[in-house]
Structure formats: structure tokens, C-alpha cells
Specification:
- About 50% of the residues lie in helices and about 10% in strands.
- The chain is an alpha/beta fold and about 425 residues long.
- Helix 1 packs across helix 15 and helix 8 packs parallel to helix 9.
- The longest helix is centred in the N-terminal third of the chain and has 37 residues.
- The protein starts with a helix and ends in a 7-residue tail after the last helix.
- Bound molecules: zinc ion (ZN).
- The site of zinc ion (ZN) has 3 residues, from loops.
Amino acid sequence: MKDILKIYILLMPMILLALNGCTLSKSLSERTSEIHDQILTVDTHIDWPMRQFLNPDFNPGVRHAPGQRESGQWDLIRMKEGGLDAVFMSIFTPQKKRTDEGHATAKEVALKQIELTKKMVAYNPDLAEIALTPEDAYRLEKTRKRAIFIGMENGYPIAKDLRNLQLFFNLGVRYITITHSKNNQLGDSSTDEQPEWGGLSPFGEKVVQEMNRLGMMVDISHVHDETFWDVIKLTKAPVIASHSSARMFHDVPHNMSDEMLKAIAKNGGVVQVALLDDFIKEMEQTQERATALEELKEETFALLHGELSQAEHKKVMEKMHKIDEKHPKNRPTLADAIDHLDHMVQVMGIDHVGIGSDFDGGGGLVGIDDVSEMPNITRELLARGYTADEIRKLWGGNLMRVFNQVIKVAEEPQKQN
Ligand SMILES: [Zn+2]
């Protein structure tokens, strides 16, 4: 009897610990759904419009099973399921030749994607509405409808005409990423072979000023460092990086150095952590995958540099998907991405960081692979000790503050140049 008592006494702390663990994990998931449900959650970068442009048969109003290639990473039902209240649909145009013809085609492609986005909302009036202002997002959240904002990735379709900027603003575009992967008529990209303008071009400077005047957010994801510093010097309003992470953890040109992060904090802006593997961590891949990718190298280069027709683009995407199926990519995890977020919060403060998934455009990590899994971010933040109010700021409060400030600057014409 004595021995049994002894064992019991010895085991007691472990039993208590186990019980405590159960309550903790239960309360963590309870707290996750409670907070995730209460706050406005915003994702500033989803590439669904280009995906829809290439796959017109996809119906965003029905649920597609997660993890299937045909499902993509976003539809309205999974967005609701994941408690994601607002998204910025990115109107992305791959950059081709910078001729009048190239610009005109890009404008057409952009207009088509805007039309597709509006049609998607029009076909699903009970589920979603187009949003133009922060107030729209907060109002829609109360009615449990998804807020669909429009952003634009690559300023290429503006051509060399500020009237196009006004046109896109009138159609609902509320941010523009100055460049994509190549230099354009507005300035230098972080990933082109070499800089062409030494930062913003003279026309790019006019575009930034006009965006300030209109109340459109300037997005510095993808731009060359010199372009970044030119924008920071010139802008009268805070800027955003709709999908960028930290160079401190992964030193790729697309990510932000600590110096740049600090400059954005000083500018009052926000950097939205990207959930894209190549921006988060370099992972070892199998030899088979490397060989298969090497064989497709020329075609992927042409795709990334906008040298393919729509049909060719689709074909190469198919081949890439096949490689992914046959030799799956070893990807970083959600926790790796939140390491970036932690660092950015440390460098910039809690008021300058947010989330921009890049879903349907290459985004997706282990633990967060489509919009239905968004609560996993809230759970990870809670587990790391962020308070409900800090999570509210990270999930959209910061972005909406910046957006309001951008509108305010536009309403103060006396302060403009
Ligand atoms: Zn991008």
C-alpha cells in the first residue's frame, strides 16, 4: 500500500502537468476562434484574378477541396470558412515588351481581370461585395460578407499616361505595386538583371505623386532598393509592402533589410509578411526535383519574363504542376514565416506589420496552404504570446490605419506639391 502511495505521489506532478496541458491546448483553440472571429482579418495579396483569367471555368462561389491543384488557394466559401474578412485581389500583368503595343495589351489584360473580379462579386451578392475604403471593410465584416478590394501588381499597364492611373482608381484599384520582376517605365525592379533608372524613373515620380493625390496606396514589394528609397523620400503618405518578408531571415532581393523596415515604420507604413516559400527559407530539395526543374529552366524563365502567350503560359504552368506532383517541394512552415513576423515586429514595432499571403501566386507553406487555414496564423501568434489587441493590429488594423492615412493625405491638397 505504501508503495502504491509512493508511486502515486511520484506520478502526481506528471498527471497535473498533463491535465494542465489539456486545458491549455483547449483554451488555445477556443481563444483562437474567439479572437479570429472578432477581429477584421485582411490579406493584402491574392493572385486569384490572373488564375481566373487563365481558368475561366473556375467557379469561386462554390467550395473547392483544399490541397487539390484545380482548387487553387482561394474561393469565397473557403474564405468564409477561414474567417478571412477582406482580401486585396491582385490584378497582375506579366511584363512584356515596353512598347505602345505591349502597354496596350497589358492594360487590356488588367481591365479584363478587374471585370472578372467585379463579375465574381456580382454573381455572389450574398457572399461578397467590392470594397473601396476601410469603412467598407468594417461595415461588411458586421454583415458577415467578404470584402473584396482590388490591388494591382506591376505598374506596367499604366503605360506612360497618368490618365490610366485615374482610370484604374475609378475602377476601384486601391494599391499599385510599382514594379514586378523586371524594370518598367516607372522604375527599377529588385530582380531584373541590372538597374536602368537608378530608382524611380521621372514618370515613376509623377505616378507616386499622383497616387498620393488620388488616395491610392503605393506598394513597394518587388522594387529595387534604390526605387524603394526614392519612394520613401518622395511620398507624402505612408506606403505598404503588400507581400514581403525580412532579409534578416532570408536574404533575397524581394525581402526587406532592417534599414528598410525601419524606414517604413518611420514613414508610418506597413509590411505584410508574405507566405511564399522562396521568401521565407531556403530548403533542401531532392535531386529528382532539381533535375526536372533544370529541364524546364528556359520555359520558366520565359514565363517569369512575360515572353509567353496565354496558351504557352498555361502549358508551362501545367508542366510545373506535374513536377510538383511527382517531386513535391520541400517547403518551410508557417512557424518559419512567423519568425519573420516576430523579427519585423521587433525592428518596426507592432503597428507596422501585417499579412499578405500571395495565395494563387506561389504562396503556401506547411501549415497554411489556402485561405481556409487562416486561423492557424492566429493560433501561432497566440501561442507566441501576442495579445488580442496586437493580433487585431497584425491581422488588418495596421493596414486599415495606413489606408485611412493615405485617404486623409489625398483629402489635404494644400500639403501636396
Ligand atoms: Zn509578387
